[in-house]
Amino acid sequence: MGSAKLNAGRTISVNRMLGTGTEPKNIGWGTGAGTTSPNDTTLFAEKALDLAATTGSRTAGTSSAVSSSVGFTGSMSGTVLTVSAVNASGNVGQLAVGQAITGAGITAGTIITSYGTGTGGTGTYNINNSQTVASEAMTAAGTNDIYQVVATLTATGSGTVTNAGASDNATIGSGNFNIKGDFTGIPLNSGDSLTLTIRDQVG
Which domain holds residue 74? Predict the structure, then answer.
């Protein structure tokens, strides 16, 4: 199982910053097997809502900006934050550059300035304030640093959904995917619904 921001998604992000392109909020699902890679350009066997047809429309999602908040266990020595564990639940997003770090004894205004060996989970991160803090529970939080799309897809046929993604085009087989993920197959019957939340964190 895995998810990735696709290479085409990076182009979408740049174009949106330049004021061009289309928002990637059209959600599609697929029934094929595979492991997500940033080089992917399509879903694995993308299907329409009947889980059989390979043409039709994707489902338009609702987009919003949300703030990251990640609980973890960490320590600080000088300007290096070492993350030894990340909470298994309750997190929105992952550790990222620009997030503020809070916890007992941590200097106010401490932020992550760059990645060390960590890239969102355990590992080291560089911070702006030099300090010594023993291992403890900490929180990393950003402000409106996640682009989120939520959509509910209701099956009109039967099948097993194995992957999903967010595209800048409403038509199956067209456009570019921003984010894609694969997962353990979810069997659906006609009338069953699946609510998908897709997040793209800046940082």
Answer: 68-141
